[in-house]
Structures are given as C-alpha cells and as structure tokens.
Amino acid sequence: MNTTVKIYDRLCNKFNGILEISYKEYRMDGSLYSIGDEQFSIERHRSAMKTAWIMVWDGHSRNKGGYRKWEEKEVVRYTDRKALNEYAKNKYSEYALVQLR
Q: Is the overall model pTM greater than 0.90, yes or no?
C-alpha cells in the first residue's frame, strides 16, 4: 500500500526527448512529504500521466433540478489513481462525498 502520492506541477525542462516535471509528494493525511523533479520519456509521459478533477459535495447543496451541486477543489496530474483517491478522501474528509473526475 502506498503511503504517499505525487502530484505533478508543470514541465521544467525538455531535452532530447526527456521531460523533467516538478512534483509535490503528500502523505495520505494531506501533509507535505517532499518536493522534487522526475524525468519522463515522452512515451511514458503520454501513457502514465493523467489529469483528474477533485470534486466534493457537502451533503445538502442541490441545484434547481434537485441534483447534487458539486464543487471543484483541485485539478491535479498524477500517475497512481488509487493513491490519489485515498489522499483526496483523507484531505477533504469534512465533505459527504469526494470524487475524482
């Protein structure tokens, strides 16, 4: 089981097909663990790097149609969805529902 999750920021350097991307690594409780850079080949970047929207619902907000009114908290880039889901649920535990989209 992973105890940390890396959330990638932006492209730092691009040289001869190698991309260097900065990241922040968080513990599952949402506290910062480390900051660094990771190198990706262009193929690995395309296949492994995903983007997710962390959406939360407070348990009572509804729109005029009666549907849940979701609030967007973060847009993150990641490689491990299971770890990101656990991190998001722990970080936004005060909300009734937390989803990755």
A: no
